[in-house]
Amino acid sequence: MSDTPPASPDSPDFDEMTRDIAEVPAVEVIVTVAVNLMSAAAVKLGLTEEGDKYKDLDEARKLVTALAGLLDASTTEISSFHAAPLRDGLKSLQLAFREASLIPDEPGQGPGEKYTGPIYG
Fold this sequence. Notes:
- By secondary structure, the protein is mainly α.
- It is built from 5 helices and no strands.
C-alpha cells in the first residue's frame, strides 16, 4: 500500500507532471519560459490593454534582464529559428522600457543590456 495520497482536483499528481515534463524537448521549455518572461514584462511596462494599471518599471527591469540572460545563455542551444524572434521581442521590450522611463538609462545600462549590448532608441 502506498503512503502517497491519491491526487485530488485540488492537488497535482506530481508523478504525472514529471512524466509530462520528461516528454517536452528542452528547446520548448526554454522558449516557453522566454515567452512567459516577455508577457510578464509587457504587462509591467504597461503595454497591455490594461495600460498603466499594472505598470511597474522596477519589476519590468527584472523581467527584461532575466529574459536577456536566458536568451544569452541559450542562444547556442536553440536554433536561430527560435532565437531570432525572441531576440526581436527582447529588443522591443528594451526600447519600450527606455521610452517609459522618466530618466532613461545611459546606453548599455538599461535592463538586459549587459547581455545584449547598448540599445539606442
